Amino acid sequence: MHYVNSKTILSPKNGMNLYRGCTHGCIYCDSRSEVYNMGHKFEDVEVKENALELLKSELIKRPRAMIGTGAMTDPYIPLEKRLEHVRKSLKLIYRYGFGFTCITKSDLILRDLDLLEKINEKSKVVVQMTITTADDDLCRVLEPNVCPTSRRVEVLNKLNEAGIPTVVWLCPILPYINDTEDNINSILDYCIESKVYGVLCFEMGVTLRKGNREYFYHKLDEHFPGLKEKYAEKFAYSYVLPSPNNRKLMKIFKKRTSDAGILNDNGEIFDYLSEFPQKSFQSKLM
Ligand code: SF4
User: Fold this and answer.
1) Contact predicate 42/19, CB 8 Å
2) CA gap 53, 71 in Å, rounded
């Protein structure tokens, strides 16, 4: 890891990136793409040394809203255990009355359950968790340095018990790897069991571009011999690589989530994630 002094901590839409780079090792990770101009090795995580001072001064100035994190880097990387930048940010978010949402694959989030409950009581918290496969062995290949799916489901259950709403990202679905009916059905079983609020799915497939394509293909060679050639032949340099089973799997996804009363419209889910409960928050202040 290395430190930098940053000028900003929140985007105009209240996105927060405390870390840049990630050590979870997901073989398909889009954040490796060259378009993001990371400028350092992806695993050499950049830490904004002055993040907490910057965050505090922004929270004092901005109207209350949901603060989101995890779009580019999982905030609960192992480094967070030691640095506690997320935990300290949560304390500020609580103190200044903002809401919080994050995308993670890590059970480290349970360390902060006390703060998440307090923020949720005062305003709103939504935890978003990515699940790509119901098979823990495959998960350890696809996402090697973070807890496997079975543990993520335990996390979802614990959050549900604590009254914290959750959303699952059902992506990416990799052609010829996890794009089976059995896998999608098993993940949806987990989502139903954990009473998730919504499931985000952007069709069944994966995106690849310069930077992440090379890494992904290297990992295919390592774990799925012969598959890189199949991908190259079928998809060449396409950005979007849809699963040949997309239509069938999307039908299952839509039907099962609708039957279970789980939100499955991406636009509605994103609206829900960014909605800050002004009225209930104000009544809690009174
Ligand atoms: S957790 Fe997210 S940011 Fe980290 S390697 Fe996996 S996909 Fe990339």
Assistant:
1) no
2) 22
pLDDT digits (tens, 9 = 90+) for 221-239: 999 999 999 999 999 999 9
For 130, other C-beta atoms within 10 Å of its C-beta total 20
Alpha helices in the chain (DSSP H): 51-61, 78-83, 85-95, 113-122, 136-142, 149-161, 181-193, 212-223, 227-235, 246-259, 266-274, 278-285
Task: Find the mean pLDDT for residues 17-34.
Answer: 96
pLDDT digits (tens, 9 = 90+) for 104-131: 999 999 999 999 999 999 999 999 999 9
Distance from residue 73's CA to the centre of ligand 1 (Å)? 6
- What homologous superfamily does CATH list for 2-285? Aldolase class I (3.20.20.70)
**Ligand 1 atom closest to residue 103's alpha carbon, by position in its atom list:** 2
- Domains of the chain by residue range: 2-285
Query: For the residues of 198-255, what is the DSSP string, one character each?
Result: EEE--SSEEE--TTHHHHHHHHHHHHSTTHHHHHHHHHTT-SEEE-TTHHHHHHHHHH
Q: Ligand 1 centre from 36 Cα, in Å? A: 14
